[in-house]
Design a protein that fits this description.
This protein is an alpha/beta fold. It contains twelve helices and ten strands. The chain has a single domain, classed as TIM Barrel (Alpha-Beta Barrel). The structure holds zinc ion.
């Protein structure tokens, strides 16, 4: 059964660890992420972008697949199904499709409009017992066409959004989606401290978690980051393992072309990556 991310966020913030939020792309991803979380006895957030939701033939299908894998694999750790970078309409669609959590990304809207729409969705989520993530300021890189420049959020705006009754807040601290460029100066801990001093115990979300050095991630967790999004690193691990299988000619040996064989090394690589991240984030055995 899906749960909202409310309790896991509170526990993570209080316990100084972070919940991994892993983006799903297909059935293999869903199976691998949930298996890894169960093996690590870690609460987990699985999430899709609106683009991935479309790719998986709709949010309803995503919710069904996740629920069915939870049942089939006897997953007992808390699992929240979350929309990543939702539009207002996308959020509504996911609420209807049975998600247990949403992110409304109003960071590209005029601030007052971000506040108004976030407030409206907070009320709906409150009524449904769902968790909601909001965002202030643009985060750099690209995620399904969402482009930013690695900006930092304004702590006063963070405070205003945090006070709307959201569950968790995404705020730019120099992080970037996708692969980090050469010469990236690192996370802005000064900005994170400034935000934390305004928002208190509000759990903060680190987007673009792929490729930030582990020590830097752990430092961010100490300063209030309680949810970390991971997408690119699992994709790269999957592609690398699949490439190795094909380059070794295994798809041309026997029935090596069978997708259950062809996709197995990539799936195993996702399991390993998710387990590794859970250890870095400190959420193992917190279920
Ligand atoms: Zn993001």
């Amino acid at each position: 059964m899906l749960v909202s991310a409310k309790q896991m966020m509170k526990d993570a913030r209080a316990g100084h660890y972070a919940i991994g939020a892993f983006n799903l792309n297909n059935l293999e991803w869903t199976k691998a992420v949930l298996q890894a979380a169960q093996e690590k006895n870690a609460p987990v957030i699985v999430q899709v972008s609106e683009g991935a939701g479309k790719y998986m033939d709709g949010f309803k299908n995503v919710a069904d697949i996740v629920n069915n894998v939870i049942a089939y694999q006897n997953i007992t750790v808390p699992v929240a199904l979350h929309l990543d970078h939702g539009t207002y309409d996308g959020c509504k669609a996911c609420i209807d499709a049975g998600f247990s959590s949403i992110m409304f990304d109003g960071s590209s809207l005029p601030f007052e409009e971000n506040v108004a729409k976030t407030k409206e969705l907070v009320a709906i989520c409150e009524e449904k017992g769902m968790s909601i993530e909001a965002e202030v300021g643009a985060i750099g890189g690209e995620e399904d066409g969402v482009v930013g420049m690695g900006e930092c959020a304004d702590p006063d705006e963070c405070k205003k959004i945090a006070d709307l009754g959201i569950t968790m807040l995404a705020a730019g601290i120099g992080n970037i989606h996708g692969v980090y460029p050469e010469g990236w100066p690192g996370l802005r801990f000064d900005v994170l401290e400034a935000i934390k001093s305004k928002v208190g115990e509000m759990p903060l979300v680190l987007h673009g978690g792929s490729g930030i050095p582990d020590e830097m991630v752990q430092q961010a967790i100490k300063l209030g980051i309680s949810k970390i999004n991971v997408n690119t690193e699992c994709q790269i691990a999957f592609a690398k393992a699949t490439r190795a299988y094909i380059e070794a000619g295994k798809d041309q040996a026997g029935k090596g072309f069978d997708p259950r064989k062809l996709l197995a090394p990539g799936s195993a690589a996702i399991v390993d990556m998710v387990k590794y991240k859970i250890d870095v984030f400190g959420s193992a055995n917190k279920a």
